[in-house]
Amino acid sequence: MAYASRIINHSKKLRNVPNLLRQDHAVLVRCFSNGAQSSVCKIEAAERERVSKFVACNHVSSGLPRNNCSRAIMRLGIPTVGVAYSRELTCSQVQSRRGFASDAVSSLPPHQEIGMPSLSPTMTEGNIARWLKKEGDKVNPGEVLCEVETDKATVEMECMEEGYLAKIIKGDGSKEIKVGEIIAITVEEEEDIAKFKDYSPSTSDSGAPAAKEPAAPPPKQEPVQQPVSSPEAKSKPCSPPSEDRLFASPLARKMAEDHKVPLSSIKGTGPDGRIVKADIEDYLASRGKDVSAPTPKTKDGKLEALDYVDIPHSQIRKVTASGLLISKQTIPHYYLTVDTCVDKLLNLRSQLNSLQEASGGKRISVNDLVIKAAALALRKVPQCNSSWTDDYIRQYNNVNINVAVQTENGLYVPVIRNADKKGLSSISLEVKQLAQKAKENSLKPEDYEGGTFTVSNLGGPFGIKQFCAIINPPQSGILAVGSAEKRVITSSGPEQFQFASFMSVTLSCDHRVIDGAIGAEWLKAFKGYIENPESMLL
């Protein structure tokens, strides 16, 4: 019976070979489309050749004992998500490898090494939020193994093949796991689980970088013969000390350190220009400081330490910090601010919400109307719906608006796709759903990638009157929306003055893409839609 079960298992593997070959075909297509070098494609061809060897071995093993087949030393790499991982080039994503070894090399049975997947284009490392399967559990294709915290969100990682979870290498809460690093082991037979109880991956398998080759020793320098000084030169007196060197008494140096006084700013009055205690006291007195003011100290005479708490960086905060730093350092920002009258907008919103409540729909916010107006303005002035590259300016035909959402974990920017073509009720529903997913840290890559412009609103939620936002690369513009406030304005009617509500908005522009006149034209279009909101419904 055991021999027959092995033959059945081999036949199952043979039936799965076409799927594996189709995976390799997709791998090669991705490899060429990403412009990878030919060496990576050769690696993928080698992977297919090893699959063929695996098939041949299984044909032979169906008529021979299993031990004979296991004597062939093989290590078969089968990519499960995207392209296989290479040390020199990464065509991208996750690496899952099936291990076969001879008895002389290892006593471990056939198993699959599951690597940390690349779940977003910018992901280089991830964290394990929690495992939904435990060691010994049976796993089937499509079942969720664990939740991975990427640089953008928390994403579910699914199992690709049937088997048993034999070993969890990286447990709950594991941090900064490199893409491709082994996180778990699966096996095909339940009785093989116990053999991986004390298993630990080798350094070469764990994704750790290879040890660097020792640097070549520097070339030996031939000793340079120093000229022999003459007796007259030796008898000459030593040159005076450099003017850059400062002489001060030990007490003066201590006082200067305690009060953070630079010695270079003090002229010494002691012998040979030495700085003494009186010089420090005179300098502090001239700055209006009390020399005798005691430094805060504890009972044992030591300086009182600051009380603080170190908060670890979340993945989203690391990525946000990196992106914002690059944006401010590499993008030439400039800012345009305009005040828009929102009385008609608020009246229209009130009418629309009455209809929404009557039909059981969600209420429409001012921010929903702002997103719609921004999208239509981008359609009217497409130069602002562009990105800068070294060779050209890419102008987008899609108007996808990112909306800034603040959460406890950090700042997220989910995207509303084709916002210029959607109705206000659709925009309102999408914004609420994406904001909820952002707060639950459950956004998927398709929920935040592909934006062409960003809207950030600190007016409605926080009452900020006006601010300047930082551009979200690779976009070339972001709109900062302030709060609405009532102002007194002149009137052409019988009354000289009247009240009106105004909202300040500031457009941050990349000057490489958007010239000042183009940015002003966009703001003019945006203001027209806000002050005449009926035109957005046409």
Structural write-up:
The protein is of the alpha+beta class and 538 residues long. It is 32% helix and 20% strand. The protein is built from 13 helices and 20 strands. Strands 1-2-3-10-8-5 form a six-stranded antiparallel β-sheet. Strands 11-20-19-18-14-17 form a six-stranded mixed β-sheet. Strand 12 and strand 13 form a beta hairpin. Helix 1 packs antiparallel against helix 2, helix 5 packs parallel to helix 6 and helix 9 crosses helix 10. The longest helix is centred in the N-terminal third of the chain and has 32 residues. About 23% of the residues have low confidence. This is Acetyltransferase component of pyruvate dehydrogenase complex.
* Unreliably modeled segments: 19-47, 50-95, 100-105, 208-243, 289-293
- The helix tally amounts to 13
Shape: flat
Mean pLDDT, all residues: 77
**Span of the ends, CA to CA:** 75 Å
- Helical proportion? 25-40%
- Oligomeric state of the chains present here: single chain
Region (Disordered): 198-245
Function: The pyruvate dehydrogenase complex catalyzes the overall conversion of pyruvate to acetyl-CoA and CO(2).
Domain Lipoyl-binding: 111-187
Catalytic activity: N(6)-[(R)-dihydrolipoyl]-L-lysyl-[protein] + acetyl-CoA = N(6)-[(R)-S(8)-acetyldihydrolipoyl]-L-lysyl-[protein] + CoA
Brief write-up:
With 538 residues, the protein is an alpha+beta fold. The protein is built from 13 helices and 20 strands. The strands form five sheets. The chain has a six-stranded antiparallel beta sheet. It has a six-stranded mixed beta sheet with strand order 11-20-19-18-14-17.
